[in-house]
Design goal:
- Helix content is 42%, strand content 15%.
- It contains 13 helices and ten strands.
- The strands form three sheets. Strands 4, 7, 8, 9 and 10 form a five-stranded mixed β-sheet that branches. The protein has a three-stranded parallel β-sheet with strand order 2-1-3. A two-stranded parallel sheet has the order 5-6.
- Helix 6 packs parallel to helix 13.
- The longest helix is centred in the C-terminal third of the chain and has 57 residues.
């Protein structure tokens, strides 16, 4: 059904001409332009599974603009590359708390909304949000939740209590965990009953201790690697973003998803922004405007699988997706969710240091196991070599005696 709707959305654009009926155009920059876009992996429709190729559609509409597209798999990696000057990009897609951090650190350009007239379609609920209260630096792209993905073939229903499933020894070595400190500490905070935005050092240490308890059970700490591991059933349990679960579930119907409502969960918004290193601001605003076009947003989100922050797009989308309570949870369910806030840089460094200690422990244990394994192999090989040499020596002595 989802693939069918993607095809129908593409046909709507073709039938109505190069610029869809009702679409609002921003200012089109002139001359040959390369637009550098830096986004999460698996986060824009690329033509696979009969979806619309969003970037190809943009380039066909604006032939003078070539999109150079690259990906990151965590907010922290994206932030570090930009902060260090390691990358020059024109459009980025950070999450809410990272938008707030980059605004505070003067890393984003103010948007010219005259070039983004399709901003009119963004729902009022997604304007004036805490991470950008004056709506100067960001435009919402998607929203969603973080919950638990599990394989119904291997995970018992009675174990689906809450975040505790990620600490259940019954599933040792079949559990995956976030490889970023913000999400990992968020889960530990919900489990321990702390404010997810706590800055209390003692509470944060308790979170680190809880993650250290989990570490022996964790098969891998992952981000985008989760797709293959869960779809191929190499792992059975993982916390992750709801939209990515929708993609995985299409490839493995035994996967399911739940929100630990009794403990709380992350409710997030990912946004489109222009960093200060941008060289093509006008083209970047044109690209953002394009993604806010209802027909384009519909075709994009039908493939991406995340919740769309503009209701005008929903009339072009798969009704099954719009009515799915996992993708669009009720206001009551949403009331149990909370957003990550931008933490003080000192607190962020403290958290990242604690998480690094947990991760080093995992690497150390893996390394020790490998050392023991290879040490045993080396010892066996050495013994065999000694036996052969000793045997040859004995035979040579016997020959000389004869």
């Amino acid at each position: 059904m989802r693939k069918l709707v993607c095809v129908l959305a593409a046909l709507v654009l073709l039938v109505s001409g190069v610029v869809p009926a009702g679409a609002v155009e921003g200012n089109v920059p002139q001359g040959s332009i390369t637009l550098n876009v830096y986004n999460w992996g698996q986060y824009i429709a690329d033509g696979s599974d009969d979806s619309m190729d969003i970037i190809a559609e943009f380039e066909s509409r604006y032939p003078n603009i070539h999109v150079n597209y690259s990906t990151f798999d965590s907010n922290e990696i994206m932030y570090t590359k930009l902060a260090s000057g390691g990358v020059t990009v024109d459009v980025i897609f950070p999450s809410d708390y990272m938008v707030a951090r980059m605004i505070e650190e003067d890393m984003l350009l103010e948007l010219d909304f005259d070039n983004i007239p399709n901003y009119q379609y963004i729902d009022e609920d997604f304007k004036g949000m805490p991470h950008d209260p004056e709506d100067k630096y960001s435009v919402p792209y998607t929203w969603g939740t973080v919950g638990v993905i599990y394989n119904t073939k291997y995970v018992d229903e009675e174990d689906l209590i809450g975040w505790e499933l990620l600490w259940n020894e019954k599933y040792a070595d079949k559990i995956l965990m976030f490889d970023n400190s913000r999400d990992a500490f968020g889960i530990a905070s919900y489990l321990l009953g702390y404010d997810v935005n706590t800055t209390d050092e003692e509470e944060l240490r308790h979170c680190a201790d809880k993650l250290a308890e989990q570490e022996p059970l964790v098969q891998q700490y992952v981000m985008d690697q989760i797709y293959d591991l869960m779809e191929n059933e190499e792992a059975w349990i993982a916390p992750y973003y709801v939209g990515d679960y929708m993609t995985m579930a299409e490839n493995n119907e035994d996967l399911a998803f739940y929100l630990p409502e009794n403990q709380g969960f992350n409710l997030f918004v990912d946004a489109m922004c222009i960093p200060k290193c941008a060289k093509e601001k006008a083209a970047a605003e044109l690209f953002i405007n394009f993604l806010c076009e209802p027909e384009i947003a519909a075709a994009n989100m039908d493939w991406v699988g995340y919740s769309v922050p503009l209701s005008a797009a929903k009339e072009y989308m798969d009704p099954e997706l719009i009515e799915d309570p996992i993708l669009y949870p009720s206001p009551e369910v949403q009331s149990h969710g909370s957003a990550f806030a931008n933490l003080d840089p000192a607190v962020t460094r403290f958290v990242e240091g604690l998480f690094l200690e947990v991760r080093i422990r995992n690497v150390s244990n893996d390394g020790m196991q490998m050392l023991v394994r290879w040490g045993g192999i080396a010892l066996a090989v050495g013994f065999v070599a000694w036996a052969i040499i000793y045997g040859i020596g004995r035979r040579q002595k016997n020959i000389r005696k004869k």
